Amino acid sequence: MVFIVMSAVICFSFLTPAPQQIIGEASRVFYYHIPQAWICVVAFAMSMIFSIRYLRSKNLHEDDKAVEAARLGLVFCILATVSGSIFARITWGSFWNWDPRETSIFILLLIYGAYFALRGALEVEEKRAALSAVYSIFAFVTVPFLVFVVPRLAPSLHPEDSIVNENLKFTMGPTVLVIFLASLATFTVIYFWLFSLGRRANRLLRIQAETEE
Amino acid sequence: MDGNYVALAVTLIVWIGLFFYIMRLDKRVKELEKRAK
Q1: Which residues contact A175 (CB under 8 A, 6 or more apart)?
Q2: Which among A15, A190, A197 is the nearest to B25, CB-wise?
Q3: Complex ipTM, two decimals?
Q4: For a designed S-S bond to A14, which of A110, A149, B6, B8 qualifies (C-beta 3.0 to 4.6 A apart)?
Q5: Which chain A residues are closer than 8 Å to B22 by Cβ?
Q6: pTM
Q7: Looking at chain B, which residue has its C-alpha nearest residue A24?
């Protein structure tokens, strides 16, 4: 099902007219860039929730889930940055312009990069899990601020009314909306599939480590 | 428009490759889970 829907999304995203005529062909990236950014926020939120659950239960499986969510969040954050940079190159003439939106996603990448650096620096498992759980909670506090607030505080080249206008009404036509929602749903399913795979692999590694002991 | 067909072909190839890679990983994890039981 995922395979068919995503293949259809890819075909329709390139074969139907560009979603925004003013921006032109580059606006097709919108079908991929926004779902990637969405998954990034969902994954970081899940990482925070599992971190809270770890701090409450001290169950290392919760820590594994928090790491897996943060790892996938970082991957999707990088993908959103790369797709955004391609869009920037075509429409603004340069891959990187230190636009408020680009700067905020760069800070977000640094914050979650530091999360993995912190984990790498600690050897005792319980200490690593506890400290990184606290860090993950504080890291997520910055996410809504960096994703939704900071880019709107300063003038930006980034298109702001791609999904909804000031009155919270959809700005896109019905075809574009269907392709966009299908893309959003498929990216979400792929994320949960990858998350489940990572979680199960981590559980197997933990079982293997326990049997070796 | 020709560029769109090239981009479409590249994206589809990447997606098909990625999908079957994840499917294979899923199968392997399932096998290992069965063995662990």
Answers
A1: A12, A16
A2: A197
A3: 0.86
A4: B8
A5: 190, 193-194, 197
A6: 0.86
A7: B1
